[in-house]
């Protein structure tokens, strides 16, 4: 790309903002919120949570949302993605809706609108009510029905206040964490059960889209997917085949049914080969086909690099997609040692081009992008975190995103992860992502240097770009 200094202007009405979730930011509050799978995980594995911090308080957004919305304005937000807690609305997952929860969210969403911050409402962000988890979670079709009832209630109660809706954030996450890699509850390793969870999640999303259509709202409904462009180690045919399999399992598995209404043929054939086809009906497939999303959120953090396997698969080990490929570490990569992720800005461009060329250039936005750094106290000067690295990270990614828009990609906005330092799954507050620093002892909020940059970025609807920042 051209690195000569110039002002990169973004389209009018571009969405500048950030994102987080109810479980990571609200705290328990006083509405009688039910327990979630994270309370269950805390009960069973408290030692897994960094420094023993659970979700009781987190960033206390429940009690501080009015002042925090002022901080949104002070950091340039014209939009913000939150999630609505299923366990707050329905403490047992179903039954009677909690009136106090409805009142809380109406006040919150109304305040955002009044202050000129468009609410993007996500309906599931890794926070299943305990009562639903005890029924088997997404493995159980009754839980799918309960989720759709929750969604329908939200459309009815908040449809006049929400700018855009999203059925799920990163539905791949619970499959990876809960059924493959042992970092989310229920912490089992069983890919066949994971495939059922994935299918039922996709079906739940389509059923929520169908319910949404009945309300004829002005808003749109979509899904937010974490997508990592997949790169083979080399042009060797076997490396390329390995990359194709990785892409099918980790990108196309949710992307295709959500946008196209169908599943990739080669993925289905591979699942059949290993007796992994989920239980489903023809009507399920019809629902998925007829209720695709209207807008797409793209979470991009890192690329996926793979190569052909260099060792034989143990046929007596649990099946995993990695039977078809191995991860590859590219020499000389930029790397965030705190989070363990490669920093590859061109990936955000390649991702957008893929959506343009292969998914009808559906309306989309970058729904998460961010850099988590531990011990940011090291960078405090005169009471403020001087996070030049985060500003450089944002500029680098926006430069490639700007080029994607110039090249015809239908990208409407950029949401950073995250607004105020928030609680993160298992890692709790180890790595900080926010534009605003949080003091856990006092709950004091302090705008970081990146927050000041973000305000100027939003006001100018662009920024001066003089080449890639590389001092990570």
TrEMBL record:
| One GO MF term | beta-glucosidase activity
Fetch the Pfam families from UniProt: Glyco_hydro_1 (PF00232)
Q: Which InterPro entries match?
A: GH, Glyco_hydro_1
* EC number(s) from the headed UniProt entry: 3.2.1.21
Q: Which domain of life is it from?
A: Bacteria
To which protein family does this belong? Belongs to the glycosyl hydrolase 1 family.
Name the UniProt record assigns to this protein: Beta-glucosidase
What organism is the protein native to?
A: Hafnia alvei
